[in-house]
Design a protein that fits this description.
The chain is α+β, with helices and mostly antiparallel strands. The protein is built from eleven helices and 28 strands. The strands form seven sheets. It has a nine-stranded mixed beta sheet. Helix 1 crosses helix 3. The longest helix is centred in the N-terminal third of the chain and has 17 residues. The radius of gyration is 29 Å and the shape is globular. The relative contact order is 0.13.
Length: 525
């Protein structure tokens, strides 16, 4: 049979095979909510389009061995995935979806015998509201034999499942279920305070539960006690051997003074945060596409981004010092999440990754943070596992767990960006952006609007303040607000952080999406 006629033959298979399961397939691959397994007996010949695939018609060309293999695999896979919600298995099903027939004819050869076509679950692109896309991988195709264990391993890998031939979970699957069922919560500490109580007028942070502070020396301890439970912890012994005492302003200026760096300028100490869109000069004339506007939960709010600018590193140090001493007012400057490897590569020789994770976690970014020590990073989350290392000053981090993101009102929020005149540091709110933030909360935790955001009342804050020489492990997706304070002797706040591929991950922005083991780390199960 020529490949051009394969779709017709496949249509015969799918039309005339009797229905084994009552499964309604979506009209498009993009709408699949699961991994799809399509079991195809073969080979087929287009001249047999009147046949019923029972191998009892003399006009049929039917490979009995292939049919028997397919039926055996079908029975085995039906049992293996009988209770797996993330997999649909189709063998004898009436299907008329054009996308499936088109895909099968594209990827199967006309002479293929019993084949299993595995379509991974499409990944929804949540980043774009204007024309959301899905990431679709080509299907994986297996030429089947009776070696079920090998085929099952492939399906488990493609579908991110952990089933054995008896339909139960294998060892990795049991571990994954344990992890998803045993995530750390602030409530489990016994002492906790709801946000309504924590942020009422006159309340102090002393009433909040605090992060545990421990010395950690082994991967086993870190993984078992903290990483797999998504549990924040302050580590007291992780950077004691760092050679950073000579990182003075003078040393850094001498070494990198002529280096151009990217900094952020803000009219207040707040970085990002939330404010009313109507405060911006172009509010009346700025138009949000209707398709986007209808999907925004907070179209009247914006995330005000600080004004970006580039200057020599020495100029930044002088600016930071003048802000610290009060010589320059009405401006805050921040060298934030700046890549050490891009801007200050030699500094990496003086520091090192946490010895207990460097062989296991995948490093994505290594950053330096330097300011006068009077900045606030407003409430947000990062999609990375974070080791925040305090060198000078301290940081007061208020954390909220990522298990009920309705309480933090996670959503797309329109962005804006300050402009600034460097001659006098005059700021204007004149740049509304055609982009949205996906990681900011619309809540001002120190002035919460409980009438507008009533679910925030039940959120439970955790105080994870770190001092010089301490490291905060903050698991991915934990909401946090960061108040920095300067060193009393150096009048600055200096930190380094390592961002890793998250061990537990989820889609975002998505209020209902739950943490799950990142498939990249399945080897750790």
């Amino acid at each position: 049979m020529m490949k051009g006629n394969l779709a017709e033959g496949l249509a015969l298979v799918l039309t005339f095979l009797h229905i084994a399961y009552s499964i309604e397939l979506p009209g498009q691959h993009l709408e699949l909510g699961t991994c799809l397994l399509v079991l195809i007996p073969g080979p087929l010949h287009v001249e047999d389009k009147a046949s019923n695939m029972g191998c009892d018609n003399s006009k049929e060309v039917c490979d009995a061995s292939s049919k028997s293999t397919c039926e055996f695999v079908h029975r085995q896979f039906s049992e293996a995935f009988s209770t797996e919600p993330m997999v649909q298995l189709i063998y004898r099903e009436q299907i008329n979806q054009g996308w499936l027939l088109s895909s099968l004819s594209k990827h199967l050869n006309s002479e293929d015998n019993c084949s299993l076509v595995i379509y991974p679950k499409p990944i929804k692109d949540r980043t774009c509201l204007l024309s959301p896309q899905h990431t679709i991988a080509d299907p994986t195709i297996i030429q089947l034999s009776t070696s079920i264990s090998n085929h099952l391993a492939v399906v488990n890998q493609v579908c991110n499942t952990f089933r054995n031939v008896n339909g139960g979970l294998d060892r990795q699957g049991l571990h994954r279920d344990y992890i998803r069922d045993s995530l750390f919560s602030v409530e489990s500490m016994g002492k906790y305070v709801n946000a309504e109580e924590a942020f009422k007028k006159g309340a102090t942070l002393d009433i909040l539960p605090k992060c545990e502070k421990v010395a950690i020396t082994s991967w086993q301890e870190f993984f078992i006690e903290y990483l797999q439970h998504s549990k924040p912890v302050v580590i007291t012994n992780a950077i004691q051997n760092w050679n950073v005492s000579h990182w003075t302003n003078d040393y850094l200026m001498e070494k990198y003074g002529n280096k151009s760096v990217h900094i952020k300028l803000s009219p207040t100490r707040d970085y990002e945060g939330i404010e009313a869109a109507e405060l911006w000069e172009t509010f009346e004339s700025f138009e949000i596409p209707r398709q986007v506007y209808e999907q925004l939960e907070h179209p009247d709010l914006v995330v005000p981004r600080p004004a970006p600018t580039n200057m020599k590193f020495s100029e930044y140090i002088y600016l930071m010092q003048n802000i610290s001493t009060g010589k320059i007012k009405n401006v805050s400057a921040y060298l934030e999440y700046s890549s050490i490897r891009q801007y200050f590569p030699e500094l990496e020789e003086d520091i090192s990754e946490m010895s207990f994770v460097e062989s296991y976690l995948k490093l994505k970014h290594l950053n330096i943070w330097l300011s006068d020590g009077n900045t606030v990073g407003k409430l947000h989350f990062d999609p990375f596992d974070n080791f925040l290392c305090m060198i000078d000053g301290r940081k007061e981090l208020l954390l909220f767990e990522p298990h009920d993101n309705q309480q933090l009102y996670e959503a797309h929020i329109p962005e804006a960006e300050f402009s600034v005149s460097l001659n006098g540091y005059h700021f204007r709110r004149n740049k509304l952006l055609e982009s949205t933030s996906m990681v900011m909360s619309p809540i001002d935790i120190h002035k919460p609007d409980f009438q507008r955001f009533p679910k925030f009342k039940q959120a439970k804050p955790l105080n994870c303040t770190i001092e010089e020489g301490e490291v905060l492990f903050m698991p991915a997706f934990w909401w946090h607000e960061v108040q920095s304070y300067p060193s009393l002797t150096k009048n600055r706040n200096l930190a380094v952080n390592y961002w890793y591929e998250p061990y537990l991950s989820r889609e975002f922005p998505c209020q209902s999406c739950k943490l799950d083991v990142n498939p990249y780390y399945n080897f750790l199960l």
